[in-house]
Design goal:
Helices cover 77% and strands 0% of the residues. With 73 residues, it is an all-alpha fold. It is elongated. The model has no long low-confidence stretch (mean pLDDT 92).
Length: 73
């Protein structure tokens, strides 16, 4: 009897594991979804990029180093 119960529990656990795997495969990544405010900021950033109103990371880094040197003098 205990052996039958163990087998039943094992089978149920296997089914639960399959369900969990399915859910994980089909679950939306909450970080991939944007709020309306985030979506607007993203669209604005893309417009800025297309219109050349952005600064590359390299240029930003140079400017920050330049400003840091002026502050230490």
């Amino acid at each position: 009897m205990a052996n039958d119960i163990n087998k039943q529990v094992l089978e149920e656990l296997k089914e639960i594991k399959k369900d969990i795997h399915f859910i994980k495969e089909h679950m939306n990544d909450p970080d991939a979804l944007l709020t309306p405010e985030e979506e607007e900021r993203f669209e604005e950033s893309m417009r800025d990029l297309k219109e050349g109103r952005t600064t590359s990371l390299g240029e930003f880094d140079k400017e920050m180093k330049k400003n840091a040197q002026h502050r230490t003098k």
